[in-house]
Amino acid sequence: MDGIDRRTFLRVTATAGAVAVTGVTVGTGAAAAAVPGFYNPFTGYPITETWEGHLARGSLGGIDYGMPVGTRLPAAGGGVVYNDPDNGTGGYTAVIHHDNGYKTQYLHLSGFVVANGTRVAMGDIVGLSGGYPGAPGSGSSTGPHLHWHMNDPSGTRINPLAFLGGDAPAGDTQVFETAHNSGWQPLPVASIVASKVSAVLRADGTKIIYSVRDGYVYEAASNAGWRNLRVPNLAGVSAISAIAVGSGVVLYTIRSGALWECASGDWVPFCVGYNGSPIYADAVSAVLRSDGTRIVYTVRDGAVFEAASNAGWRNLRVPNLDSVAVVSAISRNGITTLYTIRAGALWETSSVDWRPYAVGYNGSPIYANAVSALHRPDGTRIVYTVRDGAVFEAASNAGWRNLRVPNLGGVGAVSAIYASGTEILYTR
After folding, report:
1. How far apart are the first and last CA of the chain?
2. How many domains does the chain have?
3. pLDDT tens sequence across 180-216
4. Can you give the residue range of the structural domain that contains 109?
5. What is the value of pTM for the model shown?
6. Is residue 5 part of a domain?
7. Same-domain pairing of 114 and 192
8. Which residues pair with 324 in a beta bridge?
9. Residues 252 and 315 occupy one common structural domain
10. Which of 112, 140, 163 is a domain's end point?
11. Residues 313, 394: one domain?
12. pLDDT digits (tens, 9 = 90+) for 235-281
Protein backbone atom coordinates (compact mmCIF):
# COMPACT_ATOMS: atom_id res chain seq x y z
CA MET A 1 0.00 0.00 0.00
CA ASP A 2 1.26 3.47 -0.77
CA GLY A 3 -0.54 5.46 1.92
CA ILE A 4 0.03 5.78 5.64
CA ASP A 5 -3.37 4.60 6.89
CA ARG A 6 -3.60 1.30 8.70
CA ARG A 7 -4.79 -1.42 6.36
CA THR A 8 -6.43 -4.76 6.98
CA PHE A 9 -3.91 -7.36 8.06
CA LEU A 10 -3.31 -9.87 5.31
CA ARG A 11 -3.97 -13.51 5.78
CA VAL A 12 -1.99 -16.16 3.97
CA THR A 13 -3.57 -19.51 4.39
CA ALA A 14 -2.76 -23.09 3.55
CA THR A 15 -4.97 -26.02 2.93
CA ALA A 16 -4.02 -29.53 3.75
CA GLY A 17 -1.15 -29.78 1.40
CA ALA A 18 -2.53 -27.00 -0.72
CA VAL A 19 -1.85 -23.38 -0.28
CA ALA A 20 -4.71 -20.96 -0.45
CA VAL A 21 -4.78 -17.30 0.20
CA THR A 22 -7.48 -15.21 1.76
CA GLY A 23 -8.73 -12.25 -0.18
CA VAL A 24 -11.61 -10.85 -2.17
CA THR A 25 -12.52 -10.82 -5.82
CA VAL A 26 -13.82 -7.48 -6.99
CA GLY A 27 -14.97 -5.98 -10.25
CA THR A 28 -13.56 -2.95 -11.98
CA GLY A 29 -16.44 -2.24 -14.32
CA ALA A 30 -17.10 -3.44 -17.85
CA ALA A 31 -14.42 -5.67 -19.28
CA ALA A 32 -12.32 -4.26 -22.09
CA ALA A 33 -10.46 -6.19 -24.75
CA ALA A 34 -7.26 -7.85 -23.61
CA VAL A 35 -4.08 -5.85 -24.32
CA PRO A 36 -1.55 -7.73 -26.48
CA GLY A 37 1.84 -8.07 -24.81
CA PHE A 38 0.52 -7.66 -21.27
CA TYR A 39 -0.91 -9.98 -18.63
CA ASN A 40 -1.66 -10.16 -14.92
CA PRO A 41 1.11 -12.20 -13.24
CA PHE A 42 -0.68 -12.26 -9.89
CA THR A 43 -3.92 -14.14 -10.51
CA GLY A 44 -2.87 -16.80 -7.99
CA TYR A 45 -2.75 -14.33 -5.10
CA PRO A 46 -5.51 -12.67 -3.06
CA ILE A 47 -6.46 -9.03 -3.42
CA THR A 48 -6.10 -7.73 0.11
CA GLU A 49 -7.03 -4.16 -0.77
CA THR A 50 -8.92 -3.08 -3.86
CA TRP A 51 -8.51 -0.08 -6.11
CA GLU A 52 -11.68 1.39 -4.64
CA GLY A 53 -10.40 0.73 -1.13
CA HIS A 54 -7.25 2.70 -1.86
CA LEU A 55 -9.24 5.63 -3.20
CA ALA A 56 -11.58 5.58 -0.20
CA ARG A 57 -8.70 6.19 2.19
CA GLY A 58 -7.11 8.95 0.14
CA SER A 59 -4.61 6.99 -1.92
CA LEU A 60 -4.18 7.69 -5.63
CA GLY A 61 -5.07 4.05 -6.26
CA GLY A 62 -3.55 0.62 -6.42
CA ILE A 63 -4.14 -3.10 -6.06
CA ASP A 64 -2.63 -4.92 -3.06
CA TYR A 65 -1.86 -8.63 -3.37
CA GLY A 66 -1.08 -10.73 -0.30
CA MET A 67 2.06 -12.81 -0.79
CA PRO A 68 5.06 -13.98 1.24
CA VAL A 69 8.13 -11.75 1.47
CA GLY A 70 10.59 -12.69 -1.26
CA THR A 71 8.03 -13.76 -3.85
CA ARG A 72 9.47 -13.36 -7.35
CA LEU A 73 7.59 -10.74 -9.35
CA PRO A 74 7.20 -11.23 -13.12
CA ALA A 75 6.94 -8.29 -15.51
CA ALA A 76 3.35 -7.64 -16.61
CA GLY A 77 4.74 -6.57 -19.98
CA GLY A 78 8.03 -5.95 -21.73
CA GLY A 79 9.99 -2.75 -21.28
CA VAL A 80 12.90 -1.10 -19.50
CA VAL A 81 13.24 -1.36 -15.72
CA TYR A 82 14.21 1.51 -13.44
CA ASN A 83 14.63 0.95 -9.71
CA ASP A 84 13.72 3.57 -7.12
CA PRO A 85 15.22 2.72 -3.70
CA ASP A 86 13.61 5.71 -1.99
CA ASN A 87 10.01 6.06 -3.15
CA GLY A 88 8.70 7.54 0.09
CA THR A 89 5.88 5.49 1.61
CA GLY A 90 6.18 3.10 -1.35
CA GLY A 91 9.66 2.00 -0.31
CA TYR A 92 11.71 0.06 -2.84
CA THR A 93 9.89 0.41 -6.16
CA ALA A 94 10.53 -1.19 -9.54
CA VAL A 95 9.11 0.71 -12.51
CA ILE A 96 8.78 -0.85 -15.97
CA HIS A 97 8.68 1.71 -18.80
CA HIS A 98 6.71 0.03 -21.57
CA ASP A 99 7.19 0.85 -25.23
CA ASN A 100 3.59 2.11 -25.53
CA GLY A 101 4.26 4.90 -23.01
CA TYR A 102 2.62 3.19 -20.05
CA LYS A 103 4.44 2.34 -16.83
CA THR A 104 3.95 -0.51 -14.36
CA GLN A 105 5.00 0.03 -10.75
CA TYR A 106 5.73 -2.58 -8.05
CA LEU A 107 5.99 -1.10 -4.52
CA HIS A 108 7.24 -2.24 -1.07
CA LEU A 109 9.87 -4.59 -2.50
CA SER A 110 12.41 -6.46 -0.40
CA GLY A 111 14.94 -6.42 -3.21
CA PHE A 112 15.75 -5.56 -6.81
CA VAL A 113 16.97 -8.24 -9.22
CA VAL A 114 17.87 -6.34 -12.40
CA ALA A 115 20.00 -3.25 -12.92
CA ASN A 116 18.62 0.13 -13.95
CA GLY A 117 18.09 0.32 -17.68
CA THR A 118 17.69 -3.43 -18.15
CA ARG A 119 15.24 -4.43 -20.87
CA VAL A 120 12.94 -7.25 -19.83
CA ALA A 121 10.34 -9.35 -21.61
CA MET A 122 6.87 -10.12 -20.35
CA GLY A 123 7.22 -12.66 -17.54
CA ASP A 124 10.84 -11.86 -16.66
CA ILE A 125 11.46 -11.44 -12.92
CA VAL A 126 11.96 -7.78 -11.99
CA GLY A 127 11.96 -7.80 -8.18
CA LEU A 128 11.14 -9.55 -4.91
CA SER A 129 8.04 -8.71 -2.91
CA GLY A 130 8.36 -7.30 0.59
CA GLY A 131 6.25 -5.24 2.91
CA TYR A 132 7.28 -6.66 6.28
CA PRO A 133 6.73 -3.75 8.71
CA GLY A 134 9.93 -1.80 9.31
CA ALA A 135 12.06 -3.88 6.95
CA PRO A 136 14.27 -2.14 4.38
CA GLY A 137 12.23 -1.21 1.34
CA SER A 138 8.84 -1.73 3.00
CA GLY A 139 7.95 1.97 3.22
CA SER A 140 4.68 2.40 5.11
CA SER A 141 3.56 -1.20 4.62
CA THR A 142 1.94 -2.91 7.60
CA GLY A 143 2.20 -6.49 6.31
CA PRO A 144 3.77 -8.59 3.53
CA HIS A 145 2.18 -7.77 0.19
CA LEU A 146 2.73 -6.24 -3.24
CA HIS A 147 1.22 -2.89 -4.20
CA TRP A 148 0.67 -2.76 -7.98
CA HIS A 149 -0.48 0.09 -10.18
CA MET A 150 0.10 1.57 -13.63
CA ASN A 151 0.48 5.03 -15.11
CA ASP A 152 -0.79 6.04 -18.53
CA PRO A 153 1.38 8.09 -20.93
CA SER A 154 0.15 11.33 -19.33
CA GLY A 155 1.36 10.14 -15.92
CA THR A 156 -2.11 9.51 -14.48
CA ARG A 157 -2.29 6.53 -12.18
CA ILE A 158 -4.64 3.83 -13.55
CA ASN A 159 -6.05 0.51 -12.41
CA PRO A 160 -4.00 -2.27 -14.07
CA LEU A 161 -6.98 -4.64 -13.93
CA ALA A 162 -9.07 -2.24 -15.99
CA PHE A 163 -6.18 -1.69 -18.40
CA LEU A 164 -5.65 -5.42 -18.85
CA GLY A 165 -9.22 -6.01 -19.83
CA GLY A 166 -11.53 -6.85 -17.16
CA ASP A 167 -12.49 -7.64 -13.71
CA ALA A 168 -10.22 -8.54 -10.88
CA PRO A 169 -8.20 -11.69 -11.41
CA ALA A 170 -10.39 -14.68 -10.83
CA GLY A 171 -10.20 -15.75 -7.23
CA ASP A 172 -12.47 -18.59 -8.36
CA THR A 173 -10.82 -20.61 -11.11
CA GLN A 174 -11.30 -24.01 -12.72
CA VAL A 175 -9.89 -26.98 -10.80
CA PHE A 176 -7.79 -29.49 -12.76
CA GLU A 177 -6.68 -33.03 -11.99
CA THR A 178 -3.23 -34.11 -13.18
CA ALA A 179 -1.73 -37.57 -12.58
CA HIS A 180 1.86 -38.72 -12.85
CA ASN A 181 0.86 -41.98 -14.56
CA SER A 182 -0.96 -40.11 -17.33
CA GLY A 183 2.02 -37.99 -18.31
CA TRP A 184 0.87 -35.06 -16.20
CA GLN A 185 -1.92 -34.22 -18.64
CA PRO A 186 -4.31 -31.82 -16.84
CA LEU A 187 -8.03 -32.51 -17.08
CA PRO A 188 -10.73 -30.14 -15.79
CA VAL A 189 -12.68 -31.66 -12.91
CA ALA A 190 -16.35 -31.32 -13.91
CA SER A 191 -17.52 -27.78 -13.23
CA ILE A 192 -15.57 -27.18 -10.03
CA VAL A 193 -14.56 -23.53 -9.84
CA ALA A 194 -12.99 -22.44 -6.57
CA SER A 195 -10.66 -20.10 -4.73
CA LYS A 196 -9.27 -22.83 -2.45
CA VAL A 197 -9.00 -26.58 -2.79
CA SER A 198 -8.06 -29.47 -0.50
CA ALA A 199 -8.04 -33.05 -1.79
CA VAL A 200 -8.20 -36.24 0.26
CA LEU A 201 -8.20 -39.99 -0.40
CA ARG A 202 -10.94 -41.69 1.59
CA ALA A 203 -10.38 -45.14 3.11
CA ASP A 204 -12.47 -46.80 0.38
CA GLY A 205 -10.24 -45.32 -2.33
CA THR A 206 -12.58 -42.50 -3.31
CA LYS A 207 -10.90 -39.24 -4.24
CA ILE A 208 -12.71 -36.24 -2.78
CA ILE A 209 -12.16 -32.56 -3.47
CA TYR A 210 -13.22 -29.97 -0.93
CA SER A 211 -13.31 -26.51 -2.42
CA VAL A 212 -14.21 -23.02 -1.26
CA ARG A 213 -16.20 -20.61 -3.36
CA ASP A 214 -17.68 -17.34 -2.10
CA GLY A 215 -16.98 -18.52 1.45
CA TYR A 216 -18.98 -21.74 1.06
CA VAL A 217 -17.53 -25.25 1.07
CA TYR A 218 -18.31 -27.82 -1.62
CA GLU A 219 -17.63 -31.55 -1.85
CA ALA A 220 -17.07 -33.53 -5.05
CA ALA A 221 -16.27 -37.24 -5.14
CA SER A 222 -14.73 -39.35 -7.89
CA ASN A 223 -17.29 -42.13 -7.33
CA ALA A 224 -20.18 -39.74 -7.93
CA GLY A 225 -19.04 -38.24 -11.21
CA TRP A 226 -17.53 -35.26 -9.40
CA ARG A 227 -21.00 -33.87 -8.68
CA ASN A 228 -20.21 -30.71 -6.70
CA LEU A 229 -22.45 -30.44 -3.64
CA ARG A 230 -22.48 -27.74 -0.99
CA VAL A 231 -21.45 -28.83 2.50
CA PRO A 232 -24.09 -27.62 4.99
CA ASN A 233 -23.46 -25.36 7.99
CA LEU A 234 -20.27 -23.81 6.62
CA ALA A 235 -20.10 -20.19 5.49
CA GLY A 236 -17.55 -17.41 5.65
CA VAL A 237 -14.72 -19.91 5.17
CA SER A 238 -11.31 -18.53 4.25
CA ALA A 239 -9.17 -21.68 4.48
CA ILE A 240 -9.73 -25.43 4.53
CA SER A 241 -7.79 -28.61 5.31
CA ALA A 242 -9.28 -32.09 4.86
CA ILE A 243 -8.14 -35.42 6.32
CA ALA A 244 -9.55 -38.93 5.99
CA VAL A 245 -10.57 -40.39 9.36
CA GLY A 246 -12.06 -43.88 9.58
CA SER A 247 -14.52 -44.27 6.73
CA GLY A 248 -15.22 -40.55 6.55
CA VAL A 249 -13.61 -37.13 6.33
CA VAL A 250 -12.92 -34.40 8.88
CA LEU A 251 -12.62 -30.79 7.75
CA TYR A 252 -10.77 -27.98 9.47
CA THR A 253 -11.82 -24.52 8.35
CA ILE A 254 -10.94 -20.98 9.30
CA ARG A 255 -13.98 -18.77 9.75
CA SER A 256 -13.69 -15.19 11.00
CA GLY A 257 -10.11 -15.96 11.98
CA ALA A 258 -11.01 -18.93 14.22
CA LEU A 259 -10.51 -22.66 13.63
CA TRP A 260 -13.50 -25.01 13.30
CA GLU A 261 -13.83 -28.79 12.95
CA CYS A 262 -16.65 -30.74 11.33
CA ALA A 263 -17.04 -34.35 10.18
CA SER A 264 -18.83 -35.97 7.26
CA GLY A 265 -21.27 -37.78 9.54
CA ASP A 266 -23.37 -34.69 10.20
CA TRP A 267 -21.22 -31.67 9.19
CA VAL A 268 -21.95 -29.96 12.52
CA PRO A 269 -19.10 -27.47 13.11
CA PHE A 270 -17.35 -27.16 16.46
CA CYS A 271 -14.96 -24.39 17.42
CA VAL A 272 -11.51 -25.88 18.08
CA GLY A 273 -9.72 -24.68 21.20
CA TYR A 274 -8.49 -25.44 24.70
CA ASN A 275 -10.87 -24.92 27.62
CA GLY A 276 -13.16 -22.78 25.51
CA SER A 277 -10.39 -20.56 24.14
CA PRO A 278 -10.54 -20.53 20.31
CA ILE A 279 -7.53 -21.09 18.11
CA TYR A 280 -7.04 -18.08 15.87
CA ALA A 281 -5.09 -18.59 12.69
CA ASP A 282 -4.29 -17.39 9.19
CA ALA A 283 -3.45 -20.86 7.82
CA VAL A 284 -4.14 -24.49 8.68
CA SER A 285 -2.85 -27.93 7.69
CA ALA A 286 -4.16 -31.06 9.41
CA VAL A 287 -2.84 -34.62 9.68
CA LEU A 288 -4.02 -37.92 11.14
CA ARG A 289 -1.26 -39.58 13.13
CA SER A 290 -0.90 -43.38 13.04
CA ASP A 291 -2.28 -43.66 16.60
CA GLY A 292 -5.50 -41.94 15.50
CA THR A 293 -4.65 -38.52 16.91
CA ARG A 294 -5.82 -35.59 14.82
CA ILE A 295 -3.30 -32.74 14.76
CA VAL A 296 -3.71 -29.28 13.31
CA TYR A 297 -0.83 -27.00 12.46
CA THR A 298 -1.77 -23.36 12.19
CA VAL A 299 0.05 -20.17 11.27
CA ARG A 300 -0.60 -16.94 13.09
CA ASP A 301 1.49 -13.78 12.72
CA GLY A 302 4.27 -15.83 11.12
CA ALA A 303 4.51 -18.38 13.96
CA VAL A 304 3.45 -22.05 13.72
CA PHE A 305 1.31 -23.73 16.38
CA GLU A 306 0.40 -27.37 17.05
CA ALA A 307 -2.81 -28.61 18.66
CA ALA A 308 -3.75 -32.27 19.12
CA SER A 309 -7.09 -33.96 19.72
CA ASN A 310 -5.61 -36.17 22.47
CA ALA A 311 -4.42 -33.13 24.43
CA GLY A 312 -7.69 -31.22 24.50
CA TRP A 313 -6.52 -29.04 21.62
CA ARG A 314 -3.98 -27.23 23.79
CA ASN A 315 -2.35 -24.87 21.27
CA LEU A 316 1.44 -24.91 21.59
CA ARG A 317 3.95 -22.96 19.55
CA VAL A 318 6.31 -25.01 17.40
CA PRO A 319 9.88 -23.90 18.19
CA ASN A 320 12.40 -22.53 15.71
CA LEU A 321 9.80 -21.39 13.16
CA ASP A 322 9.04 -17.76 12.47
CA SER A 323 8.15 -15.55 9.49
CA VAL A 324 6.19 -18.49 8.07
CA ALA A 325 3.69 -17.76 5.32
CA VAL A 326 2.32 -21.22 4.51
CA VAL A 327 2.54 -24.74 5.94
CA SER A 328 1.92 -28.27 4.64
CA ALA A 329 1.99 -31.18 7.10
CA ILE A 330 2.42 -34.93 6.50
CA SER A 331 2.64 -37.77 9.03
CA ARG A 332 4.25 -41.22 8.91
CA ASN A 333 5.08 -43.73 11.66
CA GLY A 334 4.09 -41.28 14.37
CA ILE A 335 6.37 -38.50 13.10
CA THR A 336 5.01 -35.31 11.60
CA THR A 337 7.00 -33.42 8.99
CA LEU A 338 6.21 -29.81 8.19
CA TYR A 339 7.07 -27.93 5.02
CA THR A 340 6.96 -24.18 5.43
CA ILE A 341 7.67 -21.22 3.20
CA ARG A 342 9.78 -18.59 4.92
CA ALA A 343 11.01 -15.50 3.07
CA GLY A 344 10.01 -17.21 -0.17
CA ALA A 345 12.12 -20.36 0.42
CA LEU A 346 11.04 -23.88 1.37
CA TRP A 347 12.02 -25.40 4.73
CA GLU A 348 11.53 -28.85 6.27
CA THR A 349 11.21 -29.63 9.98
CA SER A 350 9.92 -32.66 11.87
CA SER A 351 8.49 -33.46 15.28
CA VAL A 352 11.69 -35.37 16.11
CA ASP A 353 13.42 -32.13 17.11
CA TRP A 354 11.69 -29.30 15.16
CA ARG A 355 15.03 -28.28 13.68
CA PRO A 356 14.40 -26.53 10.32
CA TYR A 357 16.43 -27.33 7.22
CA ALA A 358 16.36 -25.46 3.92
CA VAL A 359 15.09 -27.75 1.17
CA GLY A 360 17.03 -27.69 -2.07
CA TYR A 361 19.42 -29.46 -4.41
CA ASN A 362 23.17 -29.05 -3.84
CA GLY A 363 22.61 -26.02 -1.64
CA SER A 364 20.26 -24.26 -4.06
CA PRO A 365 17.04 -23.29 -2.24
CA ILE A 366 13.60 -24.04 -3.60
CA TYR A 367 11.65 -20.80 -3.93
CA ALA A 368 7.87 -20.98 -3.91
CA ASN A 369 4.64 -19.28 -2.95
CA ALA A 370 2.64 -22.50 -2.46
CA VAL A 371 3.46 -26.03 -1.30
CA SER A 372 1.76 -29.41 -0.93
CA ALA A 373 3.59 -32.44 0.46
CA LEU A 374 2.90 -36.17 0.45
CA HIS A 375 4.42 -39.47 1.58
CA ARG A 376 4.77 -42.27 -0.95
CA PRO A 377 4.30 -45.84 0.39
CA ASP A 378 8.06 -46.43 0.09
CA GLY A 379 8.67 -43.56 2.52
CA THR A 380 9.76 -41.01 -0.07
CA ARG A 381 8.71 -37.48 0.78
CA ILE A 382 7.64 -35.39 -2.19
CA VAL A 383 6.89 -31.68 -2.26
CA TYR A 384 4.98 -29.93 -5.00
CA THR A 385 5.54 -26.20 -5.12
CA VAL A 386 4.15 -23.34 -7.18
CA ARG A 387 6.33 -20.51 -8.44
CA ASP A 388 5.35 -17.93 -11.03
CA GLY A 389 2.36 -20.07 -12.00
CA ALA A 390 4.44 -23.19 -12.69
CA VAL A 391 4.42 -26.39 -10.59
CA PHE A 392 7.62 -28.13 -9.49
CA GLU A 393 8.30 -31.55 -7.95
CA ALA A 394 11.15 -32.40 -5.58
CA ALA A 395 11.69 -35.77 -3.87
CA SER A 396 13.71 -36.73 -0.81
CA ASN A 397 15.17 -39.77 -2.60
CA ALA A 398 16.54 -37.59 -5.40
CA GLY A 399 18.37 -35.06 -3.27
CA TRP A 400 15.48 -32.61 -3.62
CA ARG A 401 16.29 -31.94 -7.26
CA ASN A 402 13.53 -29.49 -8.24
CA LEU A 403 11.96 -30.43 -11.57
CA ARG A 404 9.17 -28.62 -13.36
CA VAL A 405 5.94 -30.60 -13.80
CA PRO A 406 5.04 -30.40 -17.51
CA ASN A 407 1.80 -29.04 -18.95
CA LEU A 408 0.88 -26.91 -15.93
CA GLY A 409 0.85 -23.12 -16.10
CA GLY A 410 -1.08 -20.27 -14.55
CA VAL A 411 -1.43 -22.25 -11.32
CA GLY A 412 -2.21 -20.48 -8.07
CA ALA A 413 -2.46 -23.41 -5.66
CA VAL A 414 -1.86 -27.16 -5.55
CA SER A 415 -3.14 -30.06 -3.44
CA ALA A 416 -1.39 -33.43 -3.78
CA ILE A 417 -2.52 -36.96 -2.90
CA TYR A 418 -1.17 -40.45 -3.57
CA ALA A 419 -3.82 -42.78 -5.01
CA SER A 420 -3.90 -45.93 -7.16
CA GLY A 421 -0.12 -46.11 -7.19
CA THR A 422 0.52 -42.62 -8.50
CA GLU A 423 0.83 -38.99 -7.49
CA ILE A 424 -2.23 -36.89 -8.33
CA LEU A 425 -2.35 -33.10 -8.25
CA TYR A 426 -5.37 -30.85 -7.99
CA THR A 427 -4.60 -27.33 -9.13
CA ARG A 428 -6.44 -24.09 -9.61
Report:
1. 27
2. 2
3. 999 998 888 876 878 889 999 999 999 999 999 888 9
4. 26-163
5. 0.64
6. no
7. no
8. 342
9. yes
10. 163
11. yes
12. 999 899 999 999 999 999 999 899 999 999 999 999 999 998 999 99
Q: What does the alpha-carbon distance between residue 247 and residue 344 come to, in Å, rounded to a whole number?
A: 37
In a domain, 13, yes or no: no
pLDDT tens profile 4-46: 232 332 223 333 333 333 222 222 222 223 466 787 888 778 8
Is residue 138 located within the same domain as residue 196? no
| Nearest-angstrom CA–CA distance, 166 and 424 | 33
> Looking at residue 120, which CATH number applies to its domain?
2.70.70.10
155 and 31 co-located in one domain: yes
Of 132, 163, 194, the one marking the end of a domain is 163
What's the 3-state SS for the chain? CCCCCCCCCCCEEECCCCEEECCECCCCCCCCCCCCCECCCCCCCCEEECHHHHHHCCCCCCEEEECCCCCEEECCECEEEEEECCCHHHCCEEEEECCCCCEEEEECEEEECCCCCEEECCCCEEEEEECCCCCCCCCCCCCCEEEEEEECCCCCEECHHHHCCCCCCCCCEEEEEEEHHHCCCCEEEEEEEECEEEEEECCCCCEEEEEEECCEEEEEEHHHCCCCEECCCCCCEEEEEEEEECCEEEEEEEECCEEEEEECCCCCCEECEECCEECECCEEEEEECCCCCEEEEEEECCEEEEEEHHHCCCCEECCCCCCEEEEEEEEECCEEEEEEEECCEEEEEECCCCCCEECEECCEECECCEEEEEECCCCCEEEEEEECCEEEEEEHHHCCCCEECCCCCCCCCEEEEEECCEEEEEEC
Write the secondary structure of 125-184 as one string of H (helix), E (strand) and C (coil): EEEEEECCCCCCCCCCCCCCEEEEEEECCCCCEECHHHHCCCCCCCCCEEEEEEEHHHCC
Task: Say whether both 145 and 196 belong to one domain.
Answer: no
Low-confidence ranges of the chain (pLDDT < 50): 1-34, 166-170
Quick check: 248 and 263 in contact, CB under 8 A?
A: yes
**Structural domain contains residue 404:** yes
> Does residue 14 fall inside a structural domain?
no
Tell me: do 256 and 371 sit in the same domain: yes
Q: How big is the chain by its Cα radius of gyration, in Å?
A: 21
CATH of the domain at 286: 2.120.10.70
Whether residues 303 and 235 share a domain: the answer is: yes
Cα–Cα distance between 207 and 197 in angstroms, integer?
A: 13
